[in-house]
Amino acid sequence: MLKRLAVNCGILFAVAVAACGIHVVVNSFVEQPVVVKEIIYSYTVNALLACIVVLLLFVLKRKLKDQLGFVFMLASMLKFVFFFILFYPRYHADGDLSRVEFLIFFIPYVICLITESIILSKFLNTLDNYK
């Protein structure tokens, strides 16, 4: 199980790193470039939170087998709470959440969520094989 968990978290981080690189390159062509460290921070936080959700579902697979979907939805909601704690105050400090600031959070969130969903759907489809 640890090997599978490590591989899945590795996949998640690899996708996040690739997407972050593309995001930084695309951002360099935008009229209002933002600080690269903000993009990297956003991808890091989102990938870390997604990996924690994957870990949580792997750990709870036996205890809460029938409620894993609800655990996933609750964890996704908590990721938005992290947005309001970690990102929103910084982005809304000037009284305006610009489109670029929103996309710095939302693009990594969506990419990590999609990757996390693919990993977990494969995991949940094979859940009956676990004893």
From TrEMBL:
<dbReference type="InterPro" id="IPR046166">
    <property type="entry name" value="DUF6168"/>
</dbReference>
<keyword id="KW-0472">Membrane</keyword>
<protein>
    <submittedName>
        <fullName>Uncharacterized protein</fullName>
    </submittedName>
</protein>
<dbReference type="Pfam" id="PF19665">
    <property type="entry name" value="DUF6168"/>
</dbReference>
<keyword id="KW-0812">Transmembrane</keyword>
<feature type="transmembrane region" description="Helical">
    <location>
        <begin position="67"/>
        <end position="88"/>
    </location>
</feature>
<feature type="transmembrane region" description="Helical">
    <location>
        <begin position="40"/>
        <end position="60"/>
    </location>
</feature>
<keyword id="KW-1133">Transmembrane helix</keyword>
<feature type="transmembrane region" description="Helical">
    <location>
        <begin position="100"/>
        <end position="121"/>
    </location>
</feature>
